[in-house]
Amino acid sequence: MPIKPCRAKWAAAMTDRERFNRQMHYQPVDRCFNMEFGYWEENFREWPIFVENGITTNEQADVFFNFDRIAVIGGNVGLSPAFKQEVVEQTATKKIIRNPDGLLAEVPLDGHDTIPHYLKSSIQTPADWAEVKARRFRVDDPARVVDIERLKARHPDDRDYPLGVDCGSMIGVVRNMLTFEGLAYACYDYPAMVEDMVETRCVMVEHFLDQILGRFDFDYASGWEDICFKNGPIVSVPFFRDVVMPRYKRIHARLEAHGIDLWYTDCDGDVRPILPYLLEGGINCLFPFEVNGCSHPAELLDQYHGQLRIMGGVDKIELGKGRKAIKAYLDTLVRLVERGGYIPFCDHRCPPNVSPEDYLYYLDLKEEMFGLQG
């Protein structure tokens, strides 16, 4: 059943595609691009506005709130086949599963949204990696062939929304395959193995890009590199500079050859120690920019003005403090939106401690403050 929007789309004189491209290139726009990153699973069960209107996914919520449209095309660049997800053990309060990355993970039985407690990786040694690589990272795997015509039908050439190409992950997914602790140890115990894992990821992404670049007029590139926490990156800065960044440069050369000059990566935590190497590698936009794990977006947008863009950076903690705090925080973003290169939205999935009434106030206030620019 089609989703009926609960709000009118912000008034506009440009298409979503025109607005996104101009805003992210520091050019004048009719108004701010209007988007959000999504919600915790609990929100869909606890917020009456979602429950009463049958909204159960982030994609449905985007339509329900009538946000500007943005889309991305990704490819099969990971484990293929993935590990079979299965329950290995279960107690009264938790279960131990093997996930598609091959990790043993402890998760709550009630299904509430939380980061799993990872217990063990299927890759412990270079021999384990050699077996996984040979079986699950074949470039000639038929499942890695891109169905261009199917994607063309979904994203026609005359679209009015921005479309991105996903460039995956060089090291974040390696972290997923090894666990946080496993990657930290492996960088010292088996550095050649970790570098080969990064190289393999890069080859998979290059194989995907070679099939799809030139077939679509992409507006941006995206990625996911969740390797930072509140004290900085999991891997050492020299490792990131010497092992990860050169692979970014290879991917960036492909993007640049096809006119794609905006590339964001999704990385939580404090990215500041590795930001110079993200930029040197070609990644020039941060998403969704967690404030408490890093800084106010103004700090980096001022420091790297003209080089860096940010998407996100609305402090979820302030959203949970009520309307006065929400207004005070959005006031600090006005000059960033006006200057360009910045799209404000919640700095990760909006948590359920934010009341739906305050969230609607936040959406109204964003429109009032950022929706009437000329």
Could you please describe the fold and organization of this structure?
The chain has 374 residues and is α/β, with parallel strands linked by helices. The protein folds into two domains: 16-82 and 122-370, TIM Barrel (Alpha-Beta Barrel), CATH 3.20.20; 84-121, no CATH class. Helices cover 40% and strands 12% of the residues. It has helices spanning 16-23, 41-46, 48-51, 58-64, 126-136, 148-154, 172-178, 180-189, 191-212, 237-257, 275-281, 297-303, 316-319, 323-331, 334-339, 356-370, and strands spanning 71-73, 86-90, 94-98, 104-108, 117-120, 163-166, 220-222, 228-229, 232-233, 264-266, 285-287, 309-311, 342-343. A hairpin with an 8-residue loop joins strand 4 and strand 5. The relative contact order is 0.13.
- The coarse overall form would be globular
Tell me what the CATH architecture of the largest domain is.
Answer: Alpha-Beta Barrel
Radius of gyration: 21 Å
List the uncertain runs: none
Question: In DSSP terms, counting alpha (H) and pi (I) runs of 4 or more, how many helices?
Answer: 16
Based on secondary structure, the structural category is alpha/beta
Largest sheet properties: 4 strands, antiparallel
How many β-strand runs? Answer: 13
Average pLDDT figure: 95
Tell me the count of domains: 2
- The proportion of residues forming helix, as a percent range, comes to 40-55%
Question: What is the oligomer described by this structure?
Answer: single chain
Distance between the termini: 37 Å
CATH fold-type name of the largest domain: TIM Barrel
List the secondary-structure elements in sequence, H or E.
Answer: HHHHEEEEEHHEHHHEEEHEHEHEHHHEH
Strand line-up in the sheet with most strands: 2-3-4-5
CATH class of the largest domain: Alpha Beta
User: What fraction of residues sit in β-strands?
Assistant: 5-15%
